[in-house]
Amino acid sequence: MSSVVQNLRAILRRKAVEARTGLGRSHIYQLSKDGRFPRPIPLSPDGRAVGWLESEIEAWLDARIAERDARASSVMSTREPNANGKVDAVAEPLSKTYQQGRTA
Length: 104
What we know:
mainly alpha; three-stranded antiparallel sheet; elongated
């Protein structure tokens, strides 16, 4: 049974992709055209109905989160203390609990 579950693929239609990513229709298609977003899969012979693999959308979102975390990490390592000897709050390291939750 587990091999059957692993082979199932979920297809998201455009509105679901918009809801998951927060992106609008035209931006999704432009990013896809530029090779910076997963390409849609034709679901009908005429290609008018399309969908996206849920796993590809989730991987794309994970990559955006990783980019954000990498930028935040590099900003934190280059920040200098202010006149009071403290680093600004935005540059404080993420809490250990939060970091552990992101790696799971």
